[in-house]
Structure of MI domain-containing protein:
Amino acid sequence: MASVLLSSLCLPADQVVLGFRMLIESVEDAALDIPGIVEDLAMFLARAVIDEVIAPSYLDEVETNTCQGPDSMGAKILQLSRSMLGARLSGERILRCWGGGGASKTVWDVDDVKDKIRKLLEEYDSGGDVHEACRCIKDLGMPFFHHEVVKKALASIMEKKNEQLWKLLKECYSSGLITPHQMMKGFGRVADCFDDLVLDIPDVQEQFIIYVERAKTEGWLDPSFTFGKAGCEAHQRFCT
């Protein structure tokens, strides 16, 4: 539940990293009361990467600023976390690291889930039923990963200039299937991918600004939503 909470809060990545740094800096003392803290923190870090709360590169930043030599507890935490992320079927294993996903519940590999989301969006966009699409999203059983639906839908809307998927996002939000936190995180992830998306969508920043304003008007996004330096620069160009 704590891992799902981190994913849902939409905290700035640098603040999440700072939190992990503070934990690792105090790990020697905390270990007196929490014997398994090395394994626990390693799993929290790995899960944060899988949930895209922080980027894998942030592990290097954490290590640079906290670890006191290769034999320190901090170094062991980072080493174990990297080992978990590099293992076969790491996404599936890490999503189950806290004991979830027993025999009665299917747990998908993250790449598999992304592929399923892509396919269901394509099927709906080609004439599928909105309620069936919502059911498929719900059946994935990963509400903390619904930001991927938002990201992929927005990218497709901007690339194809077809607003069919906007109707799906509207239905998902109206029905409570996609929460405000997941909606905001999905929009934020699109902004973080401008450099990649511009290869297929030359006017991605300008389009994105329009959809952000529409989402705010329709109540999907908080009026305070911002999307970093790149987005601000695009907004300035758009407004002028």
Remarks:
- The longest helix spans residues 110-125.
- Confidence is low (pLDDT under 50) at residues 101-107, 229-240.
